[in-house]
Write a structure and sequence with these properties.
The complex is a heterodimer of chains A (457) and B (68). Chain A is α/β, with parallel strands linked by helices and 457 residues long. In chain A, 37% of the residues lie in helices and 14% in strands. In chain A, α7 runs parallel beside α8, α8 (247-260) runs parallel beside α10 (280-290) and α10 (280-290) runs parallel beside α12 (316-335). The longest helix of chain A has 20 residues, at 316-335. Chain B is α+β, with helices and mostly antiparallel strands. Helix content of chain B is 21%, strand content 32%. The longest helix of chain B is centred in the middle third of the chain and has 9 residues, at 28-36. Chain B is globular and about 35 Å long. Classes of the chains: A alpha/beta (457), B alpha+beta (68).
């Protein structure tokens, strides 16, 4: 079969790209689209995040021979519905899927007959062959990826989907991004890929082997190029699962970033409390010298028992140590007239085995942080994670193929007193629960989307 | 201050119903005690405590159908 028209369908949070109100992008889509563009393979892009109606989606599918989607567990229901819709329009068309869900829940993917080719694992090294000569492959393909991040091309950010409507007076950051955690426009980047720890709630390590980290100079060069081409940038979001690892790399970052970057942009990056405790001087230097403004800290819980259930390999003592160190350093920076770092506190509640006292200890821990923004999830048994696989096997998961969410308000496990947790959230410092217009907007977006794809169920 | 720690491992315990139970900890004994934090005594009794093997996280997917 000769492939004439290929379409990459970006799957993302419903309504997040209808307007220029917010703009978040998917690095997998950007990287893979860039690889195809560099190989002179023509491919169009559409996004479920920026369509208003099913008719609009159908129009995008017209005269398309090949649909490609990168599927996360959270997007899996959308992917199934979109593939069904595509096949209604193009019964002979080809659907290629990959992404994390293909690696962690292959049986689920194989059961969808509309998925013609399913790529497990990283796909960047086989993508060109797969989209040009799909008939050379079997239905389930073991993908291969790059060994080092330096082997990847810099993402051409103009290949990312655009907001459907620009509201006058509201900042349009595209192709830069707009988050509430740092001042927009922001550039998102990755410096490392795949966290080497094995937390029981996370499925990352079962997906891709570790890759060699991107050299510091290349990270700074990419940021400078983005700033020159699309800037001026106001902040950087480093999307690494764990930025504060590998002291040698961090020392180089501390030395080079302030000198070589076009500006010492404030940035957001993730850390674990055990590594902060292991290298405290290095961490303080990072805070003071490089403008690490927001630390996305994987605290998860204030209870040793729960940290063990999560296989976090951190302790209450580690968490307290990191909190005290960041509080103290922040106070010192404030005294000297510098903006202090704040903690974006990642917390998981509703964990199987967590007692009410454990949960209260977590709240008490959060209250000890002087500058905090809690980011709260309810435990979700994702396939691919150690605890997720086990709880699914025990028949305790309430997550279904139609809903893989971990937002508070969603019940994901049997035997959990969710009402207790819903109430507990009200006691958290600076917790922003979705309310008022935001809640209404979210409901409207959900309603629009369910109307778009609802009749496919 | 340098904190050195032993790494946690993943263990697959045999169960009396021919299924397997995933657990994790620094030792198999610790892995069992962590399981005990969330399972009932009845559920724990199904685990054969001295029949286990260590596995890697990337191999988890190969055992999914045999978990219980």
């Amino acid at each position: 079969m000769k492939i004439r028209n290929r379409l990459w369908l970006d799957l993302g949070e419903v309504g997040s790209l209808l307007t220029n109100f917010g703009c978040h992008q998917d690095h997998a889509v950007g990287l893979l689209m860039t690889i195809l563009r560099n190989a002179h393979i023509e491919i169009a892009l559409a996004s479920t995040r920026s369509i208003f109606s099913k008719r609009q989606l159908l129009r995008k599918f017209k005269r398309v021979d090949m649909l490609i989607m990168s599927v996360l567990s959270i997007n899996y229901p959308f992917a199934v519905k979109c593939a069904k819709l595509f096949k209604k329009v193009n019964p002979d068309g080809i659907v290629i899927v990959g992404g994390l869900h293909a690696s962690v829940a292959i049986d689920e993917m194989v059961s969808v007959k509309q998925f013609d080719y399913i790529c497990r694992g990283p796909g960047e090294n086989i993508l060109i062959d797969l989209v040009t000569k799909p008939d050379k492959f079997g239905r389930v393909i073991e993908g291969t990826g790059a060994k080092a991040m330096a082997d990847w091309p810099d993402i051409d950010r103009t290949l990312w989907p655009k907001p459907a409507i620009n509201i006058p007076g509201m900042m349009n950051t595209w192709p830069l991004e707009k988050y509430t955690i740092e001042e927009p426009p922001s550039a998102t980047i990755l410096t490392s890929r795949v966290c080497p720890w094995q937390c029981a709630f996370c499925n990352e390590s079962s997906y891709i082997a570790n890759m060699v980290r991107k050299p510091v100079e290349l990270v700074i060069k990419e940021l400078n190029d983005i700033d020159r081409r699309f800037g001026p940038l106001n902040s950087v979001i480093i999307h690494d699962s764990n930025f504060f690892q590998n002291p040698k790399w961090i020392r180089k970052w501390i030395e080079k970033y302030p000198k070589l970057a076009n500006s010492k942009w404030p940035y957001w990056a993730a850390a674990r409390t055990d590594t902060i405790r292991r290298w405290p001087d290095l961490f303080v230097m990072l805070l003071k010298e490089t403008n690490l403004r927001t630390i996305s800290l994987g605290l998860e819980s204030g209870s040793d028992n729960v940290l063990k259930i999560l296989n976090k390999e951190c302790t209450e003592e580690d968490n307290d140590f990191a909190i005290d160190l960041i509080n103290r350093t922040g106070d010192e920076m404030l005294t000297r007239g510098h903006e202090p770092p704040r903690i974006y506190a990642n917390i998981i509640f509703a964990i199987p085995g967590e007692t009410k006292d454990d949960a209260r200890k977590t709240v008490a821990m959060l209250k000890r942080i002087r500058r905090v923004r809690p980011s709260v999830s309810y435990f979700a048994p994702y396939p691919g994670s150690i605890l997720g696989y086990q709880l699914i096997a025990e028949g305790k998961s309430l997550m279904t193929q139609n809903g893989y969410h971990r937002y508070p308000g969603t019940e994901t496990l049997k035997g959990i007193d969710y009402k207790f947790y819903d109430k507990l959230l009200l006691d958290l410092p600076n917790y922003q629960s979705p309310k008022g217009t935001k809640r209404l907007a979210r409901r409207m977006a959900k309603s629009i989307f369910s109307r778009i794809l609802g009749d496919l169920q | 201050m340098k904190i050195q720690r032993n790494k946690s491992s993943i263990y697959l315990f045999k169960m009396t119903n021919d299924k397997f139970k995933l657990a994790y900890g620094i030792t198999p004994e610790e892995a069992l005690s962590i399981l005990g934090l969330r399972l009932t005594a009845e559920e724990m009794n199904l685990i054969v405590r001295d029949k286990y093997r260590r596995i890697k996280s990337k191999d988890l997917v190969n055992y999914v159908d045999r978990l219980g």
